[in-house]
Amino acid sequence: MGSTLKGIFSVGFGYSMLRVTTPILFAALGAVVSEKAGAVNIGLEGLMLISGVTGVIVSAWTQSAWLGLLAGLVLAVLFALFMGYFHIKLGTDMVLAGIAMNVIASGGTVFALFVASGDRGISSSLASKVLPTVELPLINKIPVIGPILSGHNVLTYFALLAVVGVWYFLYRTPLGLRLRAVGESPDSADSVGISVSKMRFLALGISGFLAGFGGCHLSMGYVSWFSRDMTAGRGFIGLAASALGGVHPIGTAIASLFFGFADALSNYMQSLSIPSEFVQMIPYLATVAALGVFARRQMSRERKGKKQAGREVA
What we know:
This protein has a single domain (2-313), classed as ABC transporter involved in vitamin B12 uptake, BtuC (Orthogonal Bundle). The protein has 13 helices and two strands, in the order αααααβαβααααααα. It has helices at residues 2-8, 11-36, 44-62, 65-89, 94-117, 145-149, 154-172, 174-184, 186-191, 196-222, 234-244, 249-269, 276-313, and strands at residues 133-134, 152-153. A two-stranded antiparallel ribbon has the order 1-2. Helix 7 (154-172) runs antiparallel to helix 10 (196-222), helix 11 (234-244) runs parallel beside helix 13 (276-313) and helix 12 (249-269) packs antiparallel against helix 13 (276-313). The N and C termini lie far apart (56 Å).
């Protein structure tokens, strides 16, 4: 038990936690933006897969990790807007559109990989590139903290900056105000000349953009290859982190760190004599437990609100 705790509170574990939090945080921030506009993006998982396989294929063809990243982002945004077209213009239920996107991406990415390389399920024959790591000056010299914070993939730092960027966009810009107004009351927003459909397209495009970063981090930062369904539920965990964080960028970042801790813990426990089936369950058990706590908290608030409303009426 003592050795396990020592491993968990080690520098290596802290570094691993930040690394595995990155794709979850990107997906969670994408969920925040789309939910603020009243369009829950269930298709985050599929968008991450699409960007991940695109990044690997394009970086292998061009021998440029940055071009691979750009291609992955563009395709993720296009598919997010495509999904939005079915929901906003054709009236398709957003949940069903998201589920369809996830199913299409699960099989479509394997097909695309096979066409591009002849591989089935993993890009072993593709010489894909990896995005660079960054050593933070001065910070990397600080004992304990330096090795945890420095030396990560460039997208890890971009994810942390994205938390501030999304917060500023939503709460400090006129465009963010319009987007939130559409999510809170579409009819009221429409009555003052705000285009509900344009705002939701914008939100889904930004959501796809952020999910694209998460997918590219998995295939070009977390590892250097793409494999079938490699997101392993991180898109759905991102949705859970958004809900647990109160659909707010700061709260969502904290919730993402919690899920990153659970993911890092499962990776660490694989080195111990613990059944692998139980270890693989840990991130998802943590998700269910966190959502249970969140639901209980929401129910408690609703009861208090009803009691207070009853007293005011009386």
